[in-house]
Amino acid sequence: MIALAIVLYIIFMGLATYGSILYASFMTRETGQFDIHSTIAGFMHVGLSVLAFFCWFSFAWGMGLFVLIAGFVLGVGLMVAGELVLFIFIFDRKEKWIENYQESSDEEISLQVEVE
């Protein structure tokens, strides 16, 4: 039972990182505003991680102090690792996403000029 809970805990933390990366990627390519969307993605990741902490605490409350603290340490480690992966990934892809935004906005402007 506890092994399944730990696996689900790790999967949820991984999905929090993946969802934050998807948000930052999509919104930066759509709006071209990197700073605000990378900050929102970071807060989104922290919020989902805190949700996972609360779920872990509600599950492990009656199992013993060691399980509770071990899950907390695991969660903090996964949250920090997820934030590092998130910001390394989005800062690595920043130029590509902004370039895609500029190309798409240039195409829209050229289409508007052709129509008129």
Element order: H for helix, E for strand? HHH
Q: Largest beta sheet, briefly? A: none
Structural class call reads mainly alpha
Computed CA radius of gyration, to the nearest angstrom: 19 Å
- The number of distinct β-strands equals 0
Beta-strand portion reads under 5%
Give the number of domains: 1
Outline type: elongated
Contiguous runs where pLDDT drops below 50 for at least 5 residues:
none
Name the assembly state: single chain
Helical stretch count?
3
Overview of the molecule:
The structure is a single chain. The chain is an all-alpha fold and 116 residues long. The chain has one domain (2-115). It is 93% helix and 0% strand. Helix 1 (2-31) runs antiparallel to helix 2, helix 1 (2-31) packs parallel to helix 3 (65-115) and helix 2 (34-60) packs antiparallel against helix 3. The protein is elongated.
Any descriptors?
elongated; 116 residues; mainly alpha
Show the helix and strand layout:
Elements lengths: L1 H30 L2 H27 L4 H51 L1
Describe, in short, the structure shown:
This protein is mainly alpha-helical and 116 residues long. It has helices spanning 2-31, 34-60, 65-115.
